[in-house]
Amino acid sequence: MAATKMQGRGPPAGNIELYSGTYFGACALGGVIACGPTHTSVTPLDLVKCRRQVDPKIYTSNLSAWRSIYAKEGLRGVFFGWSPTLIGYSFQGGGKYGFYEVFKYLYGDKMFPGMNKTVVYLGASASAEFLADIALCPFEAIKVRMQTTLPPFAGSLREGWGKVTAKEGVSGLYKGITPLWGRQIPYTMVKFATFEKTVEYIYKTLGKPKESYNTLQQTGVSFLGGYIAGIGCAVVSHPADVMVSKLNSDRQAGESATKAISRIYGNIGFNGLWNGLGVRIVMIGTLTAFQWLIYDSFKVSLGLPTTGGH
Fold first, then answer.
1. Are 280 and 213 in contact (CB under 8 A)?
2. Residue 212, class by beta-carbon neighbours within 10 Å (0-12 exposed, 13-18 middle, 19+ buried)?
């Protein structure tokens, strides 16, 4: 693809000037709204996925898992871990989408105006996710410990936070940061770059510019592009997702991340890195589609253009 200059600062969209501080703040808020509730809604899938990653023999199927959990603990058990999920992914969503728009504008318009757009998408999304994961990591660590230990490590976010910091200090909340970056950065690079290119391809195939379609049609394109991107995200990031679950539940006190990863891989092997992939494809595909739909719908509600297709 030929190098193309990114869209620069333009006239106001609605009452918000494109690429202004208010614009980037609105994008961050859109990310909070898109990510926090959607991740929380799939907590039942995430709960079973995490437990099966740690112990593949714990349940015979996802359906049997939910039946077993519901019979013992009711609906609260099925949604166990929802609070760190909601808070953690709200912070992460705000950082991911907000900083993506910042870095896409910074890299594409200011620093490297002649750069290939795909490279800009990849660089902007990697930079954004690196920062977003710093906010996510403490909540992800507590969520995984709550969901993968039986009996549960803690019954609530507050209890889990207190236990970890009392025993390990604040550093205990960040012992999974390296594999989290390893999971989330490739995931987000695929999520944003694939979405942008898919949306671009859809409009090219339709044969008319994005602006010729109404907002409902444009957000429909966002949903389709998001689902396609989500499938790629799930596959690319799954081995690291398994390792994050294992590290947070099975890393020994004082053990380095490298040593722990080596020991865990020795136990589970290459095939073990793909435990729960089918569930995650369904979860992440659906999740990503709805996140892009919500995010772009929020932007449209403020009079801003949808993402991609320029």
1. no
2. exposed
